[in-house]
What we know:
Helices cover 50% and strands 19% of the residues. The protein is α+β, with helices and mostly antiparallel strands. It has three domains: 4-120, Release factor (Methane Monooxygenase Hydroxylase, Chain G, domain 1, Up-down Bundle), CATH 1.20.58; 131-228 and 325-372, Alpha-Beta Plaits, CATH 3.30.70; 239-313, Double Stranded RNA Binding Domain (2-Layer Sandwich). The longest helix is centred in the first third of the chain and has 40 residues, at 49-88. The N and C termini lie far apart (52 Å).
Amino acid sequence: MAAPDLEARLKALDQTVRSIEQVLDLDAMRKEIADLQEQASAPDLWNDQANAQHVTGRLSVLQADVERVLSVRQRLDDTAVLIELSDEEDDQAMAAEARAEAEAEVAKLAKTIEALEVRTLLSGEYDAREALMTIRSGAGGVDAADFAEMLMRMYLRWAERHKYPTQVYDTSLAEEAGIKSATFAIKAPYAYGTLSVESGTHRLVRISPFDNQGRRQTSFAAVEVVPVLESTDEIDVPEDELRIDVYRSSGPGGQSVNTTDSAVRITHLPTGIVVSCQNEKSQLQNRASAMVILKAKLLVVKKAEERAELDELRGDVQGSWGDQMRNYVLHPYQMVKDLRTEYESGNPASVLDGDIDEFIEAGIRWRRGAETVPAG
């Protein structure tokens, strides 16, 4: 007989998947897929490129979501059959082998379903969008600049692990080491909803490699995550509210990057928001990319103002949860700990190499819990 706890675990996973299927509403998703496929087959689809990209992008996301759930459902059914066969097998060795295979598959399914369950929590207005990340060094001098570069690498490695395309728009190098700031995009569906929990102040404690006396140094870096806009987003930016400066790009790059005034810095005068882009070859390309970043940040400001007004009406004024949120301690012990979720890892090297999925999943669950707590 298969171990009762194995059957119970499989039954619990099956119930979780049923809940996920209800939350996602697969029938509604299939209906939307059919509608989008009809739009995508129209001969004049690409006459409006922005709409075409929206249609094809949304179609791809929905098809992947449905396929992911169906794949999990098939694996659950196959595992149930495997357990049943192990119960009926007369050969003890073969029965034990089948049970071991079922045990391994149930363990894998648990992790897959947990990630799928977290995905259902990404239901915010902009959660399905791609993400724009900006990292800035904070207090701590050269160590902070080095830490900012470490964080940038961590997120780019995370994207690489998941095979998500990235694009670096701007990197401002610090004088001695590291970076003052950097802005880059993670081009994947739900990148914003996933990574938005990373916003806030990150803190590093270590023996400074830049201190001749080998003293311990605490440094800080800020992470900002905003959603990439679509053509349907209404953000109007009058030209008279902008100051646009051009300058010569710095740092590594091709000849056309470093020998012409192709870099662009845009200042939004009413808010003081400054964005820049220097990684494209032409001033026109850099200006277009900088406007994409600016509009994304202005959208966040607009939504924050609307949210503040609602909070005031509700009498529900809460402090931002996105301040200091994670500690990376390399000395006197090895630990990365999220201050909101209490999730921690004793392997900072792996975390800084992009192994942050567990931190992100814990953050998403924590945020959903914080959002559903009724106002006092």
